Amino acid sequence: MKKNVIAFMNMKGGVGKTTVCVNLAAQIAEMGKRVLVIDIDPQMNASQYMLSPQKIEEAVKNQKTLYSFYKDDVDIDLFSMNIIGDSKILNKKGLIINGIRPNLDLICGDLNMTKVKDDGSNSDTLAAYIDSDCLKEKYDFIFIDCPPTQSVYTTSAFKASDFYVLVIKPDYLSTIGLSLFLKMVNNYNKNRKTQEKIKCLGIVANLTQKTSDNYHDNKIKDIEEKFKFVCSVFENKIGNISAIAKASEHQRFMNETPGAKRAIKKLANEFLNSYETEVKK
């Protein structure tokens, strides 16, 4: 089975994790790879980046969101005699929103995901759906955009993913968040079989700035040295470019934005090289 599910993570908010996830997906799709983005964050920022408010409203109204996988458990009818069982996964077809761009699809997030609690089985739902619908074979890559919390969403992403990408803003607080996250990964992996362990694909430095004291460059070097035996830092970074934020308001990606195209293309090429290297190990 292909190992092509990648979770984009960090235990600290405000680092632009969604921006990196969505724009890497769009760039790689433009390069001819089929990519599915799954928005598991209840804040649904990836969905807001990729869909207009009207299309999100339509998806939620038609129950064409990630929450549809969990709704039967959360809103269970205690007086119903119907036994749902595993059929709830198999019956949830047609939830993927196709054609965000050529080769780029989305499973929309939902604010109702806040209702989902870890009852011992909910954290298996996403992985079960990916397997039941053979999504690994249908797509070249599946990207999961995760919230910056230790929760059922994080555990779900761990269980569904083969690799993770850490997105950081190179500052002191991000470094602390990085240490906490890697400890969480270690705790998860130590109880897993080798083939079930989630592996680091790399660290992406985002929102970088050039300053007279080279603060961000120095902080990146510190991170490279501190975590060199755990996770390497991608050479290509994403700068703090105002055009990226402005474009996101209109559901435009970096590869469609003057001043941002070159950066995301270089990062995408490095990402693909890193991925090919890891899957061959």
TrEMBL record:
Domain AAA: 4-194
InterPro entries xref list: AAA_dom (IPR025669), DNA_Partitioning_ATPase (IPR050678), P-loop_NTPase (IPR027417)
Pfam families, per the entry: AAA_31
Domain of life the protein comes from: Bacteria
Protein name: AAA family ATPase
Taxonomic source organism: Enterocloster alcoholdehydrogenati
